[in-house]
Amino acid sequence: MRLINFLSYRGASLLMLGLFWSQGLSAQTIKSKKYFPLVEGSRYTYIGLFDKKEYTKAIICQAHTTEEGVKFYYFRETADPNSIIGSNMFGLGSYSITKDGIVNAETFWWRDLAKLDQLVPQLLLPKKFRLQNPPILQLDAGKAQKTVKFLSLEDVSVPQGKYKNCLKVHIKTVWDSGTVYNEYIWLAKGVGMVKWQKTTGRIDELTYFK
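User: That's the sequence. What structure does it adopt?
Assistant: Structure tokens below.
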């Protein structure tokens, strides 16, 4: 009986410890610039798995300054620099650091960068927040509406390595037709996106970062 009581006490203690640890993580202040650093010249390579096939994509973070002097960052494929940039990273294609956090603007093609002065950037990642009461953001993507939610901090293992306390983000896209898509993104401190479960079900994982 004493052994049973001891084990019950130990199990309850471990459960309480886990709850306190979880609450501690939720109480942390998330600073978006640390999880999505946007450093010009940073290189990422991802391997994607879908329908038993592997896909590899190498991208580089580059900067573009508009005529009004606003600096945006975007991610282009190293193999085809003058084509699509919008689908190389979660979000709308181009990203800028402001006093409110990281904003994004819809630029699907590389040539769309020339139109950034005509676009209204939308908040993608608040400057700082807590997961105890995370903000819910809405993005207008033309024929689709996106809802951005911040879920939790999770440890993630990818081919590049293990990353602790990655910020897990959920983006729900609802098209005018009524079609709904969901995607999940994991962001690691000092790195950025290390894992991306796309709307197609394909999962991209980081294999190289510099």
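Residues 3-22 have pLDDT under 50 and may be disordered.
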